[in-house]
Every structure is written in C-alpha cells, then in structure tokens.
Amino acid sequence: MAMEIAHRFTGSSIAFSSVGKSRIRNGVSGMARVGLSSVSAVHVPRRMLMQLAGFGSVLTLLGSPGLAAPLPEMKEPQVIRTLKLPSGVRFQEIVEGEGPEAHEGDLVELNYVCRRANGYFVHSTVDQFSGESSPVKLILDGNDVIEGLKEVLVGMKAGGKRRALIPPSVGYINETLKPIPEEFGPRRSLLSHANEPLVFEIQLLKVL
After folding, report:
1. Residues 150, 147: Cα–Cα separation, whole Å
2. Phi-psi region of 155 (alpha: psi -120 to 50; beta: other; left: phi over 0)
3. Is this structure's pTM higher than 0.85?
4. Would the CA dihedral through 61, 62, 68, 74 be positive or negative?
5. DSSP letter (8 states) at residue 77
6. I want to staple 113 with a disulfide (CB 3.0 to 4.6 A). Which of 29, 72, 124, 168 is the partner?
C-alpha cells in the first residue's frame, strides 16, 4: 500500500512536472514567437541605429549655445605706408603718438638711431648694450636741425615713432646742424657719410 501510494505520488509529480515543463516550454516559445514577431515589426538595422545615434549627438551639439562657438574675426594685416615729401624725404609712421603735435619752431625732445642706407649703424642716442638713452633737444627750424629731420618731426605727435630716409640735399649740408654727436669718433663717423642718404628712426618723447 505504501509503495502504491508512493508510486502514485511520484507518478503524479512526474506527470505534473512533465505537464508543467510542457506548458512552460509552450509558454516560453509562445512568448518568444510573440516577442520576435513584435521586434521584427519594428526591426532596425544596427548600422542605422548607430547612425541615428550619431546624428542625434550632432544635433545636440549644434543646439547647445555654449558649444557652438562663433568663428573668430579675421583682422586685416597692418600695412605701413611710405610717404614721400617734395624734398625727397620718405618716411613711415610706425607708431602714431597720442600726445601734443609738434609744429615748426617748437622745442622737442627725442631719441633716434641713425644708419646708412645699407643698414650700417652710424649713431644713436640709445646705448645698444645697456639700453640707456640720452635724449636730445632740438628746435624745429632751419638753423638748428637738418631740414629733412625737421620735415619728419613737424606734424608728429609725442609718443610716436617714425622711420625716415633723408637725402643729403636736406641732410648735413654743414657741420653745425643737429642732431650730431658730441664725441669726436661718432661725430666724425656721421659727417663722413653726410654725402649719402641716411636713415633715421625717431621716437618723439616730448613737445616742450
């Protein structure tokens, strides 16, 4: 009796188990069929998904005002023009000053570097090694300063810089005209080139 009851219990369990497994299998397969059919209805290739995801990222970046930086403005290069005066003097405005403007007859204070037209150094009020300067004071008239330099300084504003090519006809036509070094060596060097064009780089410090 006990064996029969046990067999019946075991058999029913097995039967239940088999029936349950069958139902589970059917249920899973049914769910699988439903799931697959629903997925297949909206199936999207993986490559397209990746493309759509990337496109969405691009749209997000473009739509973010903080990330869409404006293009930098292109600045036009500064062009230094050379002006020619009737006397033959040519000069360039390197830096336009903001101080008082120099007029004929004014007393001015300036630094300068004088070179030959081929670039060789002649004289300067600024020491090339220490950087110390010894500015000169000139009266802007024909009796004190060489004519070509006066023409360059007249109309110039304090704080400005100009580079000028001065022909000998309006340069050191006599040895009394300024600017000229006080030391014998630099003075002799400058006057030895009085018959050729000279280049002056001028910084107008003050109009006194």
Report:
1. 5
2. left
3. no
4. positive
5. P
6. 124
Going from the C-alpha of 78 to that of each of 41, 94, 95, 156, 197, the distances in angstroms are: 66, 10, 11, 20, 27
Structure tokens at 99: 């101080």
Tokens, residue 5: 């009851």
Token representation of residue 158: 């304090």
The count of residues in the chain is 208
Do residues 187 and 179 touch, judged by C-beta distance below 8 A?
Answer: no
**Amino acid at the residue 48:** M
pLDDT, one tens digit per residue, over 127-142 is 888 888 999 999 999 8
Enclosing H/E stretch for 151? helix 147-153
Residue 82 CB coordination number (10 Å): 11
C-alpha–C-alpha distance, residues 79 and 92, integer Å: 10
